[in-house]
Specification:
This protein has 50 residues and is an all-alpha fold. It is built from 3 helices and no strands. The N and C termini lie far apart (57 Å).
Length: 50
């Protein structure tokens, strides 16, 4: 980030906003993948009841 800042100075709030948006998009993508790929576990208690 320092190299980018030295090459093209910008306002700190703009950088923080961009970083926050990128973080939120990354978190949303990670949660979406976790929800889509999650398989419910079958516990031994559930198998015994079946």
């Amino acid at each position: 980030m320092l190299m980018t800042e030295l090459a093209d100075p910008t306002e700190p709030l703009a950088l923080l906003e961009a970083r926050a948006i990128a973080t939120l998009v990354g978190v949303a993508a990670g949660v979406a993948v976790a929800v889509v790929t999650h398989r419910p576990r079958v516990s031994s208690r559930t198998r015994a009841l079946a």
